[in-house]
Amino acid sequence: MTDLGDFSDFSADDPDADHADEAAADGAAERPSADRGEQSSDGETGRTNGATGDTTTDRSVEPDDFQRVDRPNIGQDRGIGTLSASAGLVISEDERDTCLRAYVTVSNRSDVRIGTYLLAQYPDGERLFCRITALEYVQEFRSDDANEIHARRAMRTSGIDEQDYKFMATLEPVAVLYDDSAGSEPSRATGEAGDGGDLKRRMADRVPKPETVVRPATDPEEIKTGLKMPEDGVFLGHLAVGGEKVRAATEPPTVDYRLKDDYDSGDPLVFRHTLVAGGTGSGKTHGAKNVLRQYLGRTYEMGDGRSPETAVVQFDPQDEYAQMHDDNPDITDEVARAYDAEGIRHGGYDDTVAFVPRVGDATYAASHHRAEQVEFTIPFSMVRDSPWLVAGASLNDNQYGALIELLNRFFRQYGDSGTYREFCSFMDDPGLREELNESGRVHEATYDAVRRRVLGFGSVFDQDAPPITEQIHQFVRPGGLTVVPTYHLNDSRAKETVVLALSSLLIDEKLSNDPRYDRIKDTPLVVGMDEAHNFLTDAESVQARKVIQKFTEAAKQGRKERLGLFLITQDPQDVADPVFKQVNTSIVLNLGDEDAIKSVNLPSSLEGKVPYFEKGQMAVYSPDNSEPVEIIGLSHCLTRHGRD
C-alpha cells in the first residue's frame, strides 16, 4: 500500500491524466471557500477524514461573523532604541577602539540628529551620557538595491519601507553619571548608587550591557552634569544641537548655558578673558551686548576683602554700545517676565556714560542713544609712561631708543605739564641735534627719522577738553558702563592712539604695585575692545611689540588683579598669538573664512558647523567651564540695538 493517497492511481501512460487533474483543480477553485477547509467563526478549521480524505465544515456560522479577540498592548516603548553588540560593544581608553552603536526604531528615526545627547542606564543605576556622532542605514536583508528594478519601483512609489533597513547611531561616550550621597562614588562591591545625592560625572570607564535602552537626555541636571556645565553664572544662551534648542522636560523646556562666576572652583571666568568672533551679520555685537549686560551690577571679591561692583570700559569703533543705556522697545512684558524667570538681566542700564575723545575738529552726534556724554582729551604727559604712543608704526629698535632719550630730556625740562606742541618745538632745536650727534647718543640721521615720525599727533594730544587723567573717578565707576566711541574720528592713527592710550592707562594702573589712581586698582574691571584685530595684531614694529607685550602681561595677571579682557573681532586670526593663548572662553558665531575658523581652535565636531551657523548660533569653547557645545543666543537684544 502506498502513502501517496490519490496519486497512487496515477499512470504515466494515461494520456488523459493531465486533463483530469486540471479539471479537478478548476472545480476546486469554483467551490465556496468554506468547502476548502478555511477557518470557521469559532476559530476551528475544517476537519478532514483521514480514512476517506473527505473534508467536512461547520456551515452554521457565516464567514462574515468572524470573531476577533482584542489583544491589549503589553508595556510601552521607552527611549529611541537599544545598544547593539552585533559589531562589538567597546569602551576603550583609546577612542579609536571605542565601538558604541545603537539600533534606532522606525518611529524614532526622523527625530534623531547628529549631536543629540543620549543616556544609557547601567543595572546599578549609573548612566552613560553620550552623544550621536554618526547615523547610518544598514540593509536588513542581503539584497542589491542599486539596480534598475529597485530604482524604478522607488520612483513610482511614495515612500520606503523603513523595516527593510536598520538605522544605526554611532555614539561617543562623554561621561558616566552617578549619584553621590556621601561624597564618594557608589560601591562597586554592592553595586548600589547613592539615593538622592548630588549628581556627579566621571570619565566613561565601564561598558553598558547589550540591548540597553537608550533615551534622549531631557533632564537639565543630567545634561549639565554630563557636559560639565555650571548650574549658575553669567548667561550666554541655550544649549542647542543642529540649530535647534535642546528640549528639556522642564518649564521653560530649555537648558541654559552659563559661565562660572564664583570662586568655588577657581576664579570667575570673566577674569580669564573672553573672545567673541563672528563675521558681519552674524549677531556678534548683539551677542556681545547681551553678555556685557550680565556683568553689569555683579560684585567680585578683591584682595582686601571688599566686594565692589564691576566696572566695564568698552571701546566702540562703530558707536553701538552707548545704546545699552536705553531699553529695547521690542521686549514685551511677557518676554521680560520670561527673562526674569531665568535670571537674565535685561533692560537699559542707567549708569552708562559715553566718554567722547576730542580730536581736532571732529564732532560727535548721538541722536541714537540717551546716555550722558563727557568730552576728554589725551594729555601728552601720558607719553612719559608709554613712549610707544608716538612711536608710529615704522620706528625700529634703534630709533625707538633715540625717542626714549629725547622724551626723557623733554620731561626733565618741562615736567608733566609739557605739551605735545612744546615737544615738537623741543625737537626743532638744531643745537640739541648737534649735541646728541657729537656725544654719540643719537646719530643725526636717526634724530631726523624720529622727528619725522613723531609729527602728525597734533590733533590727538592736549585738545580743548578736560584731560582724561583728571576724570578717572568718573571714567572708572564701580557698577558703571563707560563707552569710548571712536566712529566719529576719520583718522585711523588718531583712533588707534586714543584706544591704546586709555587701555594702557587702565592696564598699567591695574598691574602696578604703586598705582597713581587707586580707583582703577581697587575696582574689578572688564576692558572690552571691539575690532580687537586692529589694535592687537602681531607685527614687527616696536609699537606693535610693546602693545602685545602689555596686553599679554595684563592677560596673565588678570585673575590676580581682577582684570578681564573682552575681545570682539571678525578676524580672530589677526589677533596676536601671545594674547590669544591667554583667552579661556571663545564664543564663535558664523565665520566664512577658513583661516579665521581654524584660528579659534574649535574641536572638529564644531569647527565644521561654523560656516553654516545662522544668526545667533554660537559654538562655545571654554575648557574650564564645560565640554565644547553649541548654543543659541537670545532672539532679543537685552538693551536697545540698531539705529532707526
From TrEMBL:
PANTHER family: SLR6007 PROTEIN, UNCHARACTERIZED PROTEIN YJGR-RELATED. One of its GO terms (molecular function) is ATP binding. Keywords: ATP-binding, Nucleotide-binding. This is ATP-binding protein. Residues 17-39, 56-71, 197-206 have a biased composition (Basic and acidic residues). Residues 40-55 have a biased composition (Polar residues). Residues 1-79, 179-206 are annotated as: Disordered. Pfam families: DUF87. Residues 1-10 have a biased composition (Low complexity). Residues 268-503 form the Helicase HerA central domain. SUPFAM superfamilies: P-loop containing nucleoside triphosphate hydrolases (SSF52540).
